[in-house]
Amino acid sequence: MGMNTLITSGFHLIITVFSILIVTQVMSINLSYSNEHSDMQVMMGPNSLWQSRSDCGEMAVWDVSMVMCMPIALADMSMTMLMVRGNGFANRAWQSGSRGRIDSFSTNMAMLDLGTTVGANHYLNIDLMLTTELWSVPRRGYPLLAQIGESDQSGAPYIDAQHPHSSPIMGLTFSDTIRLNEDKDFLKVFIAPRGESTDGPIAFMHRLTGIVNPNAPLGHHVGQDVGHISGSLIGGTLKLGQDRFEASIFSGAEPNPSQVDLPLERPDSFSLRYIRELGENGLFMMSFANLNDHHSSDQDHIKQRRYSLSHYYQAHFSENWSIYHSFIYGGVSEYDEIPFLSSISDEFLVKGHSNRFWGRFEALQRTPDQLMIKNQISSHERSWVYAFTLGYSRNLVSWEGAELNMGGLWTQSVLPQVFRSSYGGNPFSAQVFIQLGGMHMWDLSQR
Prior knowledge:
This protein is mostly beta strands. The protein has one domain (3-443): Beta Barrel (Porin). It has helices at residues 3-27, 39-43, 133-136, 417-423, and strands at residues 60-63, 68-71, 80-95, 102-118, 122-130, 142-151, 157-162, 169-179, 186-195, 230-240, 243-251, 269-278, 282-292, 303-316, 322-335, 338-351, 355-366, 383-399, 402-414, 428-443. The protein has a 16-stranded antiparallel β-barrel with strand order 3-4-5-8-9-10-11-12-13-14-15-16-17-18-19-20. It has a two-stranded antiparallel sheet with strand order 1-2. The chain is globular, with a radius of gyration of 22 Å.
């Protein structure tokens, strides 16, 4: 039996064991529940997209990657929890310049999270993340000037467009969170046919400054959050006080955004991440990943390295007004066979009860070859591209942890002189959108 066959069989075995354990626990519970919050739900924090660490009660710990409270086992108190979370946009975009276009699309994700305690210290969990972007995003990607990454169904690279995420399964993760002491220190081990490697910042669709923005950052592939859809993933997180140490191995082959699949391959890459909680309102992260670049023309795959630093801060000025800030640096070597590329993203959100004012500043390096700009300068010479986005959205109605918003955004691109003839100057983009999002958690524990 070959190594790949052994690894694939091992993945299937572990996933089957996790599934049987959780389903067995769930089958033993009473699925009826009342519409009012139980004591356990209150201790789990509010049902909202806007959770923070301070919202996590006695029975929950803060999940940094998902930016939400997650259950943890307590002695002599069994529980089984079901959580549903979603965030989706219906967008209409207009762009100026010779490469601009007008198009409609929907970016979206939905999460289903089912978990149960086993004994006094274990919380087994299945997390499924879904999206319809393969069918709700245009064939050539949704409009995003100066964006690159991946190829469409015909094999043509996405240029000035963001690729859809793997559909319908964006992620499928099986985990065991093991409580270590009364201070809620824990060890979390996880396996995922498709999930988040332990590198990069908080993924843009989860971080609080990104929830309001329908667009991916331009630095998505430049050392930032591309690792959130890694395949054949095995990893762990150790939390000790305010520090978290994370490591994972995974396949360096990115999922094909134009195919419906869930391949299992031999892990050939690894990543490390360190996270430090800075009081109640701050967070610092740094990471490194070493992976095989499966897009390289080199038959043996060149090594690619990703680096990231990120800082997150939030402050609450009153019962209704809060401000959130994210600063992200990403770096990547040997991407598109370029020695090194850097990217910076700085995001803010000022959130009121009904009004949200937000923005994103981006600076990153691109080459003419990446954007298919010919006869200008050396095809691999790096130049800085800038984009400034300001957005506003207003809450129209809220109910049972969900909300319906309407909003718009304006992005001004500032390109190097050598790129401007291909774009017709410094182009701008405008979008209007409707956003539907929310989260709800049910206690399915036997009463």
